Amino acid sequence: MDRPPVMIDPELDAILRREMMTGERILWRGQPNPHKLYAAFGLWLFAIPWTVFALFWESMALMMLWGGGTKTPAAITWSFGIVFPLFGLPFIVIGFYMLATPFKAIAKAKRTIFALTDRRVLSVTAGKSRESASVMLDQMGPFKVKAGSDGYGSLAIQTGSSVDSDGDRITETFLIAGVPDVSRLEGLLLEQRARLAGGRGAAA
Q1: pLDDT averaged over the chain?
Q2: 3-state SS of the chain: helix, strand, coil percent to 5?
Q3: Which residue, of 101, 163, 186, 204, has the greatest Cβ tally within 10 A?
Q4: What angle do CA 106, 112, 115 make, to 5 degrees?
Q5: pTM of the predicted structure, to 2 decimals
Q6: CATH topology of domain 10-31+112-203
C-alpha cells in the first residue's frame, strides 16, 4: 500500500534551499516527526526517580531546619539545616532539566529539516538563530539504519572518532532521527556513495 506524501513546512523548505551551494541538487528531504523520537522520552525513566529522590532529600533537609522539637543543639541543627538543602538544590535543578529535555527535543524537531544532496547530508534548524550542520559524502564512514513498519526511522552516519580525557575512543556521528521514508534515504545515499566511488575509480 502506498503511503501518503510527506508534507514539508514551506518556511523550512525555503530556509533549506538558501543553504544550497551553487549547482547542488536536493535528492531527499524530510522533517522529523516529534512523536517518533522515543529516545528523548527514554530519559524520563531515569529523570523521574532522580527528581523524586532529590525533592524528598530537600524536604527532609528543610524539616531538620524548621521542624523543631528535637534535642539536637541549635547550632548543629542550623548548620546541617542550611548545608543539606544547599547540597540538594543542584540535584533538583538537574532533575527538572532532564524532565524538560524531551520537550526541548520535540520543539527542536518541529523546527528542523534534513536533506540529502548530490554532495552532502545536512540538517537545518530554524529559530531565533539558524543552525546548520553538514557532512560531505566523501567524509562519511559506515552508517546504520533503523526503520519501523510505518517507514519512519533513523540513520546514523559515522563521521570520525576522537579520544576523551580517559583515553577512550568516541565515535562521532551525524544523526538523522524520526524521519519518514528512511529506507528511501538509505537507498539514495548508497547510490550517491557508489557514484562517488565510481568517479574515483575512473579518475585513477
Answers
A1: 79
A2: 50, 25, 25
A3: 186
A4: 135
A5: 0.70
A6: PH-domain like (2.30.29)
